[in-house]
Amino acid sequence: MAPDPKQPPFKTVGKSPRKVDGMAKVTGATKFADDLSMPRMLHCKLHRSHVAHAKILAIDTSEAEAMPGVVAVITGKTMPIPFGILPVSQDEHALCVDLVRFVGDPVAAVAAVDEETAFEAALKIKVTYEPRKPIFSAEAALENPEPRLHEYGDEGNVHKKISMEFGDVEQGFAEADEVFEDTFFFEGNTHLPMEQHATLAWRDPDGKLTVWSSTQTPHYLHRAMSKVLEMPPSRVRIVACPNGGGFGGKSDPFNHEIVVGKLAMLTNRPVKIALTREEVFYCHRGRHPVLMHFKTGVKKDGSITSMACKTLLDGGAYGSYGVASTYYTGALQTVTYKVPHYRFDGVRCFTNKPPCGPKRGHGTPQPRFGLEVQLDKIADRLGLDPAEMRLRTLQPANSVTANYLKIGSMGLGECIRKVVEASGWKDKRGKLPRGRGVGLACSSYISGAGLPIYWNALPHSGVQLKIDRGGGVTVFCGETEIGQGSDTVLALCVAEVLGLDLLDLRVVVADTDLTPVDLGSYSSRVTMMMGNAAVQAAERARELIAKAVSEKTKVPVAQLEFAAGRVFDVSDPTGKTSMSFAEAAVIAEAKWGTLGTVGSYTPPPSPGRYRGAGVGPSPAYSYSAAVVEVEASEDTGMVQVKKVWVAHDIGRALHKAMTIGQVEGGVYMGLGEALMEEMTYRGNRFGVHKFPSMLEYKSLTTMEMPEVETFLVEDPDPNGPFGAKEVGQGPLLPMMPAVANAVYDALGVRVDEIPVSPEKVLRALAAKDRRYGPKGFPVIPMPPVTKVLTPAQGGTGRATEHETQAGGVRS
Amino acid sequence: MMRLPAFKYLAPHSVAETVLMLSSEGPGATVVAGGTDLYPNMKRRHQVPKTVVSLRRVADLRGTHAGADGSLRIGASTTLMALERDARLKAERPALWAAVRSISTPVLRTMGTIGGNVLLDTRCNYYDQNLEWRRAINNCLKCEGDTCWTAPGSDRCWAVNSSDSVPVLIALGARARLSSPRGHREVPVESLYRDDGISYLTKDHDEVLTELVLPPVGPWKSHYGKLRRRGTFDFPVLGVATALRFDGDRVAEARIVLNGVGSSPLRCTEAEGFLLGKRIDPETAKAAGEIAFRPAKPLDNTDFENAWRKKMVKVYVRDGLLAAK
Known about the structure:
The complex is a heterodimer.
Chain A: H1 22-27, E1 42-48, E2 54-60, H2 62-65, E3 70-75, E4 99-100, E5 106-112, H3 115-123, E6 126-131, H4 138-143, E7 158-166, H5 169-174, E8 178-186, E9 198-203, E10 209-213, H6 218-228, E11 236-240, H7 255-267, E12 271-274, H8 277-283, E13 290-298, E14 304-314, H9 322-331, E15 342-349, H10 365-382, H11 386-392, E16 399-400, E17 406-407, H12 412-423, H13 425-428, E18 436-446, E19 461-467, E20 473-477, H14 486-498, E21 506-509, H15 526-553, E22 560-563, E23 566-569, E24 579-580, H16 581-592, E25 595-601, E26 621-632, E27 639-649, H17 656-675, E28 681-682, E29 688-689, E30 707-713, H18 735-747, E31 750-751, E32 753-754, H19 758-766, E33 771-772, E34 786-788, E35 799-801
Helix pairs in contact in A: 10-18, 14-15, 15-16, 17-18
Chain B: E1 8-10, H1 15-25, E2 29-32, H2 38-43, E3 51-54, E4 64-66, E5 72-75, H3 80-84, H4 87-92, H5 94-101, H6 106-111, H7 114-118, H8 131-136, H9 165-171, E6 175-180, E7 183-188, E8 208-214, E9 221-227, E10 238-247, E11 250-259, E12 266-267, H10 269-275, H11 282-293, H12 306-324
Parallel strand pairs in B: 1-3, 2-3
Antiparallel strand pairs in B: 4-5, 5-8, 6-7, 6-8, 9-10, 10-11, 11-12
């Protein structure tokens, strides 16, 4: 039988070999940043603001400096250069210079001989503040343009306003049989990684700085560190330690990282900081609270004629990734179901709370919640099965959406069919006893952003291979292992091409001195981009070796096969003429000299050319569908998820166990957001975080985690390495709407707000309209809309009206 | 990382030695058993004892002793895990066993003791926070401040008694034995508590809880219901212990004890009286819940909204009575 070209006889791909870092992780040998220690090391503690919004009038550090054991105390004036992850939002200082903008904003730093002394000294720093009116919600930010948190931004305390229209939404609404309008709210929540951020900085005898840190983005930290400390990048080295979980919470360059870098340079001693859990809550960069309004026109069969989506984001005190987050609340509504006309209006505000940013799903889970719940309402009103309605309106594979996102492989239909069948959806929906219900929702996510965070024409990921004469292969890449398994994927891609056991490879990663740049572990980009770079480097190495072997053995290159650590002549079924990979490497080194290859990856260009087109394009889109079954109590309003069926279109699972692990991890995190996680503050109590601890910030325990049945849909995408797409973020997204839809099926009430807490369920049960959720969306004056003709209208991808200067934000 | 403040550590070998140490060290000294409550509080700097007197080496405070009459004495340093693994406790006093098993997590129950849970510091979302966080609210009445942020108009502290074992012990008629340099005394567990979030205990600072004494179970039937967001880890936002003694199918004696809704456990005497002479059926149980819910005063200082927690008293008393039947 001829091999199926979509299912080549892979050697390693698709199996579940031991992870390359597995033994180190389970034996406790892995060195996380907080495990590092150096002789003469100092400990750093930050003095953080205890007021939400104020001008700094004076900082008295004398008492702290006089304490025995204190080596250095610094304030913001030592580092006046601002930084930030996006070029358009360089609004952070390593230590606050003029204003403090939230409770927890760092003002000063102490380096001392031990942690206890640093802690006591930090308490002795006295800051005189002139209070400013604090702003604790997006609505308050709209109402109070003054006092401004920042000098920049679109106006007052509005950081960013976006208005885009693709096609003609009014025409689309006119063509609709029914038009639905719904308002939703998604409360903010945070990443809650097991590992608290930690950083160690060391000035070497030559005056170069090395920083080991729990960061997902060593390259961006490298740039920020170099900028703020005014040191050339060549004299700064960033090493990202394996992260004990990131989820987007370690994707920004952080104050504490730059502070210990500065202190190490000043004191000429290694300086370490290990944040407390409370401080991790202040680093935040998590899910934005988003108020949303969806207006969707549909035909009687549920097909969408037009959609207009408005979002209002509470950004917290700094820009972070926020401009990109805002675009993302509008970018991916079009990639799941056909939306011929689409409009998006997004607004992000500054408030006196820890900054929001990218958390698993980055800006897309909030609108996905609104969209999928609204579709459930539409199906209900039209008397349609929500699963079948979705199946009829799917965005086709190999198409371009109204907002110019290029879709490659598209397995959502198969995902829906899998979960519908496995869950017994047709026998359950509307048919379970009161208090029990099922809900369905779908989603999609990018496999890496099409553009880098700062404008450049360089590869997004680079891989170098070194092959030694003993047959050893070392793979160098700037990627960062955050628990998602990227080290293993890196080794696996090379091992597959060279026919080696991935555990025989050595990976050297996330070190700006030793490894080529990979932009970082964010936006679900690593497998796609690093994987393609690794495959390219490995294929080049295979070619070098094959050519040399062919020359020596006279076996044509096309006849050489690399497998099981050997190089075979496929025409010799006995294998007797085969040689070990090491022998082949020696032949190749003799011919070519020292063996090394490189590979790199740059995403394909996107057809969108309008301002804002930088957010949304991706080499490939993953798709997910889920059915959840819940039990919801009419007495208490408490919701228990009994079981989850989830299907994920991964393109191809490079490592089956890790892929399923990512799906289950996404389900776990999504259910936490659906049911209980809330990043909330006490606006009437000085704006303190309500409960910055793992005990009172509620996330699921194993007791709440239901059984998960996972299905992988593998329709290889031409852009992915071996056809692979992302899995790190997408499977989280359907959880929140699926839970809300299941609660409706169980009790007949709509909770249009995340989390679906018991209080809200009871209120919905008591409400006349059987709904709990926001009442409306504020009227916000918007800038002129950027109008773009859709591909169906013959558009070029450029705006037709109000095209402003080029250089919109990218992510 | 959060570090402990400096303190003096004493490790007596007997109860007599313990109380003498406490007495001579003065009010700045405190007892530690499992440390699962005290040490986190010390790291957050809202309990900063100069001296910590450990019961770790006081062997005769550990273990349970069943009396011939069916009574049970539990040493105050008995770990929660030891009680959880006590098959006899599970069989004879399932409500207490269930309450113990619901405390925190297995890891913390391995260290934590029953005495520690009985004397658990009252809890509040304005109090159980780091020193730096508390600075942002200018501290609170319970710790270095002058305002109770739960009820700023109030002149008292509203921190919540959050023990799981206490309501059950009260419902089971348990007594507490205390030792001090002045001798021993035995009091009903109920009388250990005061309705004040700060001085929530009636015992003297140099008194050590040595033992809990439970009377024979006899015909009593009991149940513990715990309301919290998650199935582990969380303190109760409402704990309801119900104990019933029947005469035929009629209630001869009833005890309903709430916890987690005030600074001290709350005995629902009116609802108890209402039940006398009645059968426990869904209607009666519901009516008792309506009565019990009235005096409960949950405030905004734990997980969940207080209005919802108050409503839940009805549900949990109703369900607790039906379960205890």
